Amino acid sequence: MNKRWMKKKVWLIILAVAVLVLLWLLYQHQTKIRNETQLEKSEQLLSGSADSKSQNAEQTKQTKQTKQTKQTKQEPQRIEELIIDVKGAVRKPGIYHVQPTDRVVDAIEQAGGFSRQADRDKINLAQKLVDAMVIYVPKHGETEQNVLAESSVNAAGSQESGEMVHVNTADEQAMQNLPGVGPAKAKAIIQYRDEHGPFKSIDELTNVSGIGDKSLEKMKPNISLQ
């Protein structure tokens, strides 16, 4: 009886030890799986953080480039100065440098303003300026009608005055100061300029509808590209 009990006791002990070993191995296996899972999650988090930083850096770079592009587009293009001659009843007659966007009133201000003898009613203060333009301010009582070198609209008057028309900046009215150029041709020149950019040479004007070689020869003495 005692021997049987001893055998059962030994087998129970062996079984208990086996169960404990099995449970320990199972615990170790689960621990290993849990650690690997946590490590994988940590790597994913680190990788995601790195990707996020990379994306943020790329977005910041693109934003800066976009801002620089906008700033570049918004920066006004540098425009060459015009040189004009202000004469007559002004305080400081002479040669002046002005901007293409300036008007006659701006030129007269640079010349010190009107003198006391100036007949202001004969001056178009709102008229645009062109290169090599002569502004003549008459005195009261003068009968001369050539107040501005650009004032003549007909071709003959334009040639006699020797005025120059800046075809890259002139408006439709100023463009008509060219010999043989009326409203239709002036509009065609400006339309061509808007579509193809500033004229690079005088001969390029023959590409404008209605202007041939003969017409261009008459216009050349009065054309300025500067």
From TrEMBL:
Amino acid composition bias (Low complexity), ranges on this chain: 59-71
Chain segments carrying region Disordered: 44-76
Cross-referenced InterPro entries: Competence_ComEA_HhH, Endo/Exo/Phosphatase_dom_1, RuvA_2-like, Soluble_ligand-bd
One Pfam match: SLBB
UniProt domain Soluble ligand binding: residue ranges: 83-137
Polar residues compositional bias, start-end: 44-58
Lineage top rank: taxon: Bacteria
Listed NCBIfam families: competence protein ComEA helix-hairpin-helix repeat region (TIGR00426)
Protein name listed in UniProt: Helix-hairpin-helix domain-containing protein
Organism: Sporolactobacillus shoreicorticis
